[in-house]
Amino acid sequence: MALSLEEIIQPGYEKAIPGQGMPCSKEPGQTGDLRITFFVEFAVQLDQEQRLEVCNILNECQVKKEQENQADGD
């Protein structure tokens, strides 16, 4: 299963995916929701290369967001 998220993920964030969970014993043919809890560990320190990579990723995200905003405004 592929999962794409637009939300900001933080420690303890929970995502429910309707109909992708365990089968319901009281309702044959029905499935519950799949619930995913994210456990996030943040780096305590980064070396210079890692810092540069984080900056590049954040810049790419900012550019993408600006392009989406421009497309929505057209």
Automatic annotation (TrEMBL):
Signal sequence bounds: none
Keywords in alphabetical order: Chaperone
Classification via InterPro entries: DnaJ_subfamily_B, HSP40/DnaJ_pept-bd
Keyword flag Chaperone: yes
Any one GO MF annotation of this record: unfolded protein binding
GO terms under biological process: protein folding
GO cellular component term, pick one: cytosol
PANTHER family the record matches: DNAJ CHAPERONE C-TERMINAL DOMAIN-CONTAINING PROTEIN, DNAJ HOMOLOG SUBFAMILY C MEMBER
UniProt name for this protein: Chaperone DnaJ C-terminal domain-containing protein
Organism, as annotated: Trapa natans (Water chestnut)
